Amino acid sequence: MSAESLTVIMTKMLKLHKSLYELTVKKTDIVKKGDTAALDQLLKDEQAHMAAINKLEQERLALSNQVMPGASLQEIAEALLSEKDELLQIKEELTTVISEIKARNELNQQLIHQSLQFINFSKSLVIPQEKEINYGPPAGKKQKPGQSPGMFNSKA
C-alpha cells in the first residue's frame, strides 16, 4: 500500500514539475514581449504550482519516513522490489525536469536583468543628470591640506 502511494505521489510531483517547466517556457516568451500583465498572472500560476509541489513533498517525506525512517528515495526503492523500477524511473525523470527548470529560470533571470539594464539606460537618456550646485572648490580640484573651508582666515 505505501509503495503504491509513494509512486502515486511521485507521479503527481513529476506532472506538476512538467507543468511548471511549461510555465517557465511561457515566461521566457512573455519577458521577451515585455507583457507585464501576463507576467503577473504567470507568476501567480507559478506560486500555485510551487504550493502544490511543496504540499506533495511534505506528503512524500511523511510517507517515506513511515516506510523507512531516515532513508533516501534510492534506499526505499531498493527495499521495495515491487515498485523499484517505476520509482527509479520517476526519480530520474523528475531530476531531469528539475534541471531543465533551473536552466530555463537562469535564462529568464538573465533576460529580466538585461531588460532592467535597458530601462535604466533609457531612463538616463530621457532624464538629464542634475549638476550639483554648491559653494565649494571647483570640480576636479582638491582642497589643500592646511586650507580651511571657511571664508575667513581664523589666524588673522
From TrEMBL:
Transmembrane segments: none
Keywords: Bacterial flagellum biogenesis, Cell projection, Cilium, Coiled coil, Flagellum
Region (Disordered): 132-156
Residues in coiled coil: 39-93
A Pfam family: FlgN
Keyword set includes Phosphoprotein: no
The UniProt record lists the keyword Iron: no
GO biological process terms on file: bacterial-type flagellum assembly
Protein name: Flagellar protein FlgN
Organism: Mesobacillus subterraneus
Lineage: Bacteria, Bacillati, Bacillota, Bacilli, Bacillales
